[in-house]
Design brief:
globular
Length: 505
């Protein structure tokens, strides 16, 4: 494991601050404690309490929100980090790996990445993502359908389809089209931290939430050597300059992942699989007895001493014995979680240590728990039961369809802002009103200050660009502003806003 020095990964510099001179190890600890405070007190974390995990608009507080889920992921991530450090310490490797005296930053960066991992998710979860992407994809396709007519050149998206004049400009147009049609919660998290909230986190802390390493505008086949690391968008065109700087600061290759991100991902995998099943029982989708039968069927033939026997069977048997002194359902899930964590956390730690060279370089092209082990088999059993019996349940699907309609409807309502010519929209931004666009003026006033500021700052950086490039990028940032505003809503706020603006109440 020569060449591995984690000290080079603990970069305490911040993008909006002057360089920091660190005198000793405690200075480093103090900087990451500052990160913790910035994150925990951020609006993005508070909003997670009213964003869905599986069941949108859920009033039962016992059913998980994104916040309660993220807190559970945070704890599992801390556990994995401690397990890794313990075994490296036992082997006498901490000093040689640059981890001597760095256990606090190691654990803190993982914990805070776990807490933040869902902050970019829009209302209604993945269906919210789908609604945004489908809406923008249809909008781009609408322009292409008109490309053979004179109407196309005057429509709001015509300038995004002109080709053949300048290869650089053509490529930019293509990137913008793809980028806007690939909204993703992971990429939005980076945008929130850097552009919208300006949390000014250390480069190391931000790098740890860069879960996937490809830009949202990517349209080429994925390289086989990093297809897993690039399977989803990790950042937008708007944040690309920052990502390039971040990679240089923490020593990441173009498509490489920060090493501690693998721990955050494993903690999420362990946490959500059990949580979704427990919430389904809380919602009376199935009973514990039915869940046990579903899991047994997914696992297949079980043998004494295998993971099903050690985890699910143990939890189920203890539940029967617990009926006399506590709620058996609660006890079952407590035991299921305890036994699952007991088996999977050491496995994740072992995988991290066994593949340390490629993980440190960020080129390990799979998840820690993605192997042919019984640990992965157990997780896949949990996921399969959730997919077949929870996500496909009529109540969940009905709520997701409502969420899809809400997000699509809000985008329809705010679309007049995207149809305004550049000069008129610029006047609206500058004067905060436009007499010829009364509806658009009122819609613009509803956008939050931080989203309008992000647009204005982006436009200020375009002042010296050529006119055609500025036109393309202005539309991009205007569309991104609308996506920012709607994706930042909580489930209930989006639902209520849609009903208000549709005059449905």
């Amino acid at each position: 494991m020569s060449g591995i020095d984690f000290k080079t990964k603990f970069n305490v510099q911040r993008p909006f601050s002057p360089p920091i001179e660190t005198a000793d190890a405690y200075d480093i600890i103090r900087q990451f404690e500052s990160d913790r405070g910035r994150i925990i007190n951020s609006a993005a974390i508070r909003r997670l309490q009213q964003k869905t995990q599986v069941f949108p608009l859920e009033k039962n507080a016992a059913v998980r929100s994104r916040l309660t889920h993220s807190m559970e992921v945070q704890q599992v991530g801390r556990h994995i980090a401690k397990e890794i450090l313990y075994h490296l310490g036992k082997a006498g490797s901490l000093e040689s790996l640059g981890l001597s005296g760095s256990s606090d930053p190691f654990e803190s960066v993982v914990e805070m990445a776990c807490l933040m991992h869902d902050i970019g998710n829009p209302p209604f979860g993945h269906f919210g993502e789908s609604a945004i992407n489908n809406w923008f994809a249809k909008r781009m396709d609408l322009a292409s359908l008109k490309s053979g007519s004179t109407a196309f050149e005057s429509c709001s998206l015509g300038f995004l389809r002109r080709e053949g004049q300048d290869e650089t400009l053509d490529l930019l147009r293509k990137k913008v089209r793809y980028d806007l049609c690939h909204f993703d919660g992971n990429a939005q998290a980076i945008r929130l931290v850097f552009t919208l909230l300006k949390l000014n986190l250390t480069f190391t802390q931000t790098a740890c939430i860069l879960k996937y390493t490809r830009p949202a505008y990517w349209f080429e086949p994925l390289p086989e050597t990093c297809d897993y690391l690039m399977k989803k968008p990790g950042f937008y065109l708007s944040e690309e300059p920052f990502i390039q700087r971040l990679r240089a600061e923490v020593g990441l290759g173009e498509f490489s992942r920060f090493p501690l991100t693998y721990i955050m991902e494993a903690a999420d995998d362990i946490s959500y699989c059990i949580a979704d099943l427990e919430d389904a029982v809380e919602k009376d989708i199935f009973t514990v007895e039915q869940l046990y039968r579903h899991l047994k069927k997914e696992w297949g033939e079980s043998a004494a001493g295998d993971l099903f026997d050690k985890v699910v069977e143990v939890a189920y048997q203890k539940m029967d014995r617990a009926r006399t002194f506590r709620n058996p359902v609660d006890y079952f899930f407590m035991e299921l979680r305890v036994q699952t964590v007991k088996q999977l956390v050491p496995h994740a730690a072992t995988r991290f240590i066994s593949n340390l060279s490629s993980i440190f370089s960020g080129t390990f092209n799979q998840a820690l728990l993605e192997d042919d082990s019984q640990a992965n088999r157990l997780l896949e059993s949990y996921k399969s039961v959730a997919f077949k019996h929870v996500f496909n349940h009529y109540e969940v699907e009905e709520l997701e369809l409502q969420g899809y309609r809400v997000i699509s409807g809000l985008l329809d309502i705010y679309s007049p802002l995207l149809d305004m010519p550049l000069d008129d929209f610029s006047e609206l931004v500058e004067k905060d009103t436009h007499r010829s666009y009364p509806i658009e003026t009122r819609l613009f006033h509803k956008l939050s200050a931080k989203h309008r500021l992000a647009y204005s700052e982006a436009m200020a950086r375009l002042l010296n660009r050529p006119q055609e490039e500025r036109e393309v990028m202005e539309y991009y940032h205007r569309a991104r502003m609308i996506q920012d505003y709607i994706s930042g809503m909580t489930d209930l706020y989006a639902y209520d806003e849609y009903r208000r603006l549709m005059a449905a109440e």
